Amino acid sequence: xxxxxxxxxxxxxxxxxxxxxxxxxxxxxxxxxxxxxxxxxxxxxxxxxxxxxxxxxxxxxxxxxxxxxxxxxxxxxxxxxxxxxxxxx
Length: 89
Fold this sequence. Notes:
Order of helices and strands: HEEH
Shape: elongated
Number of helices: 2
Largest sheet: 2 strands, antiparallel
Radius of gyration: 18 Å
């Protein structure tokens, strides 16, 4: 069950990172009206001006780090428990 959580959190982290990279790359190609931002089919906002896109891109990029750290915590906590039990035996 723990590996399912690690896999799910890793997938979410990659999706956030892909969206952040997409927003970083689209900054130079936005017209004056702005763009709409969606994530996994949900509309985040309808119009974001060119000046504000970098904030959303940074938010998605930082948000990708959090699920990755939680997944790494699950993996390393399991390894530490195995090492402690192995030393007791």
